[in-house]
Prior knowledge:
The protein has helices at residues 19-32, 65-87, 97-110, 132-148, 157-165, 212-225, 240-249, 267-272, 288-295, 308-311, 326-338, 340-357, 360-376, and strands spanning 3-8, 35-40, 47-51, 54-59, 91-94, 113-118, 151-154, 173-175, 199-203, 230-234, 256-260, 276-279, 300-303, 318-321. The protein has 378 residues and is of the alpha/beta class. The protein is globular and about 65 Å long.
Amino acid sequence: MNIAVVAGYAYPLNFALADRDLRVLRVYRKTLGTVVVIVQSPDGVRHQWEDDRVIVNYVPRVGPGLLGLATFWVGSLLTTWRLVRRYRLAATDATDLAAALVLIPIKWLTGVRLLLHLQFQFFEMSAMAFPRWKRWAFRVGARVACRYADSIRCVTEDIKEQALRAGVEPGKLVVIPTRCDATLFDPARVPRQAGTGRQLLYVGSLTKLKGVDVLLEAMPQILSQFPNARLRLVGDGPLRREVERQIVEAGLSGAVDLVGVLPYSGIPEVLASADIFVFPSRSEAMPRAVLEAMAMERPVVASRVGGIPEAVRDGVEGLLVPPGDAGALATAVCRVLHDPQLAYALGRRGRQRILERFTFQENVRALVAWHRTWESKG
């Protein structure tokens, strides 16, 4: 069952350097057949990269926003149609809505099956993070994609329930959770670093969606009880300057370190130096950053949104708070800082939760079985 994976905007731009994703594609190659990937060009040039028949075709994108989406759509459509015929591909795999809109015409033209990944809350997007027009546009796009998909993989039970409420056929839906590489994120491999016991860590993009502003709003309350507490923000995004301004205006320059983007291979070490992982997002599906913190035995304080409660059970692997509530976030962080035994227990149970439900091996086994179900249907 040779397959085409169209990645749209969701995947890293350069698969040749993205070992995290190449591992999955190489398993596909070994078990399913030739794997052809169509993805945005990392340098704006149309070219191809190949490794053991995992063939990555980079499609250039001209311009931002809708113009960029349109150029990617046309280029991906033509590229995919050519490759489907050349390699006799039996299925196409859409990792996001942009990819699905490429593959719907391919399904019409060639008859190949369309498998769709729903990795975001497209049907019920947060009003705290997205304007009404954007919520409407994504909801419509998701309904169209789900209508034409042969099967739909939801990364959380929450997304499946949203899809059902939106009228998606129940027989199309299957839940396969997000994966976490528990061998890379292993506290036995990256020893715990000595510190003050007051090191907070956030890893993610700097966007309104992620709620970093709420975390910064909570910091004065945390510092009033723990003056030596420090926060590291790892990541970048469109709100970087706003975050910098908020840090200065709140007088947090000595307590907050804005690190920027780090190589993925360096994240385990950063987690090893943290005492609490804080994730104040306003809306989520299943954030991999939270799973990776749990795998490193870090106690998690996070928002009770999306699929996060499916991984972090309140009071078991971490503490959950309402999104956008800086006071509740500060109270939860201080509770963990006050009680080292609680922090230790939350962290230990967090890694056990990852090993039980979110390992790389289990995720890829389920994905391969999902694809093979369609292979058996001819």
